[in-house]
Each structure stands twice: as structure tokens, then as C-alpha cells.
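Hey team,

Filing this mostly as a record. A colleague (T.K.) asked me to run one chain through the structure pipeline before their review meeting, and I want the input and output archived in the tracker in case anyone asks later how it was produced. No errors, nothing strange. Just documentation.

Input sequence:
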Amino acid sequence: MTPSANMNVMIKAARIAGRSLIKDFGEVENLQVSVKGAGDFVSKADLRAQSIIKEQLLEARPNYGWLAEEEDGEIIGPDPTRRWIVDPLDGTTNFLHGMPHFAVSIALEHKGDIVAAVVYDPAKDELFHSEKGQGAFMNQTRLRVSGRRSMIESVFATGIMPTGGSHLTQVLQDLGRMIPATAGIRRWGAASLDLAYVAAGRYDGYWEYGLNPWDIAAGVLIVREAGGFVEPMTFGGDLMGGDGVICANESLYPHLCKALGRKTEAR
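Output structure:
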């Protein structure tokens, strides 16, 4: 696939921000960290990466809007139909604890649809990317969701909000149903990479409650372009409105929904 001009801009921004993060990751013990909330931290590295991405994207496309995690409110651009949705450091807690599992997530939205996506893991130099209708890739390799059909042979990922959040009881109930029915559950603390790993067939499915647009915007397109089903965790809900996410391949999707007590649409 020949990347579009927008994709080239996104990849360049993600790689430059990724290099900055890796430099800071090597000095993680010296980072000055401020507490943003219980179990949720923001570092100078996070803000530096966001500044790099914002400069790169808005210099290249000054008319586009901007929505990012470490930002007070949304910027509406002169072109209100397009906006960047950015998480400069997904997996901040992993990063600050010296665990090399974190990512830069950049999505481009046009008229409410995500049309281009990049999730970059700089520690492993894995760049997951997709454009609507063009398939999904990791570096130069085309991605496809796993072909597994049996829950007991499948590995799923989930997330748990810091301190458990308002969904803690539901998550614990989910785990009680899922653990004995599957080959394993993983909780690695970076939603964008959880989705990218589903697209790559590393995970067979993923679910999580209470996510923000910047957590999932890029990953959702990458999974769909790799052939996966992605829906709000809340039936009939809004993926970008905090209603969580549930995804898997075509065969496992209805079984995952059933195990989690979620209704499924007729397909």
C-alpha cells in the first residue's frame, strides 16, 4: 500500500515522538512526575511527546482540529469536518515503571469517521497503521485477525481502570466468567496496543469499559481493517463517547459477547 500524504505526516510525527519517549524512557528514574489522579500520572515525557506531535500535525495540516489526552479542551480547526485524535503516551504507568509496553496513538477523523490511524510502539519499533478501505499493517506486513474459533483456545485482553473505577464489580464478574472459559486473560495497560494486538492476531479479542476517544480511535480502525468486529461495550452505545469497546474475529465475537452478557446485533 502506498501511504497517503496524511499517513506520511502521521507516521513522521509518531516516529519523532517515539524517539523522544525512548530517550526519556532510558532515564525514567530521573523523570519529574506529577500526580494527575489516583494511579494516573503525567510526566514531562508525556507532555514533550504531545508537543512534538501537535507541532508536526498542525504545521502540516493547520486547518484540522485537535483532541488529545493532555490538553484542556478540544481545538476546533477552520475545517470542522477533520480533527486529529491523539494519545502521546498510552501506557504511562508502564513507562514510569520501566516496562517497555507503551505507544503513541494518532487517529484522523473525518465527518465522525476514523479514516487513518497509527499506533507506534517505539520500544519494539512496531508501527501499526491503517487507512480506511486499505487494510491494516504492522511496519510492512499486512495484518489479519486470528482465525481461532474456540474460546478455550483463545487469549483475550482487558483493562482495569486505576483504583478499579466505577466498573470494578463488573470487571471482576467478567473475569470470573472468562478465566475458566479461555486459554488466558491479559491486562497490559495500553488500550491502543491491545487493539493493535487483536488486529495482528496476537490476542483473539479484547474488551474494556470507560475508555476515552484518544484511547481507542486509532486502534478501532486498525482492527476493523484487519477483519475484526469492534463495537461499544454498551449495546447501542457510542464508541467515542466512553461506552467502552469489545472486539474479536467473526467467529469468536458472538461467543465473547455471550460470555460477557452483552447482546449482539444480527449479522
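Quick notes for T.K.: Helices lie at 5-25, 44-60, 92-96, 168-178, 191-199, 213-225, 253-259. The radius of gyration is 18 Å.
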